[in-house]
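Table S4 entry, Tripartite tricarboxylate transporter TctA.
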Amino acid sequence: MDAFSGLMSGFEVAFSIEGLMFVFIGVFVGTFIGMMPGLGPISAIAIMIPITYSMDPSIALVMMAGVYYGAIFGGSSSSILLNAPGVAGTVATAFDGYPMAKQGKAGKALAIAAIASFTGGTVSVVLLMLFTPLLSAVAISFGPAEYFALMFLGLTAIASLADGSAIKAFISATLGFMVVTIGIDAQTGTSRFTFGNPNLLEGIDFLVVALGLFALAEVCTLVLNRNEKDDGQSKNIGSLRLSKQDVKDMSGPVSRQSFLGFIIGVLPGAGATIASFIAYITEKKIAKHPEEFGKGSVKGLAAPETANNAATSGAFVPLLSLGIPGSGTTAVLLGAFLVLGVQPGPLLVQDRPEIFWGIIASMYVGNIILLVLNLPLIPYISKILKIPRPLLISLVIIFSLIGVYAISFNTFDLYMLLAFGVIGFFMRMFSFPAAPFILAFILGGMMEQAFRQTLTISNGSFGIFLDKPIALSLIGVGLLTILFPLLKGRRKYKVS
């Protein structure tokens, strides 16, 4: 069966009454759950596995795929409106989405997020359909050395996340590195920086850090400034209509990050979180006015929203073609495949073409449903901003506490959440950016593991990086990223 015939058979599954109904249910449930801090796509898919026992495997998997990309999309709403990312992949969305909401442009911010997500998701589905066999070969060619080089490239952009002092950005990143090393060392089994506390043996969860630094820090700021007169601007939803300039500003980031996000999503272990950060950093570096980022930039919002949805589809490449999960969520999806008696891998397209092509075709339908479902709902979703400030603060605190407690059912995590809230507040007070902290926290653990695996393979020789063309190229680009601004600054100093 060629690709076109396969896609047509997939559309038969996706456009059947049952298929349309369950795609809609998956997308709707995923969007709703994505808005709730702590209840990400992993929890949603895990909860729905028992529900799908008696269902047709193709319909069940189409629905769970809808939950996945629906949750990524839904997470952007809480990031934009409350500065409380629902899922890790939407943290970068808050950098410019929340400032837009505070400026009375919440409606426009949600519309940009919806359109960027739709475009990124749709383009990546086309790429998924065309290049799955080729990209699966690229994915397995990435070893520890290449992963370390990719993480290194991401970390070189820490200075670009600084909102003023680069020194403060590096201090913030160092704190992120320190926090991510807490817990049991996966390679040696020894505990690090746990101070004898068994609650720290498994490390600190990403959601604890993200909600503390962003959501609770924002709550602390609102409480401290409670006597300031509200000008009403932050409660103004604004128009959903995008101007010609907005569309022009969006077009570049959306077109570039649709491809970049998909490629990063293809790499096992990378996922939507890393794709969104790299997209944001890349666009800030090439922008004519990088100083606008972090203050409500259209480009700064469109780039991560495009990339995280594109990466969501990209993560299906190693899952469907190799049977290797590309992210935590696709690992749970792999379990769902096996529970339903379906073995993903090279033979899936031959043995079960209705499932392989049904999932791909359902993504076209799901992305359209996401757009049609969410654009009319934006005025209603935006009404969150009209909730009185004391009640809104209470709701953010409650949802953050519930979201963190639902991960481990451990009250110690709640204390950690409050601690990171205080840290985030003081960082904000003394102008230390939180973005480098969270970027180092996300990349640091994977970077350390990849580095140690690389040196283990090479018996401690750094020459292995010279023997890997992809790794060498990525490290070279990273070094240029560091050196170019320094040389440029030195040249300006000499001229002045």
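The longest strand covers residues 183-184.
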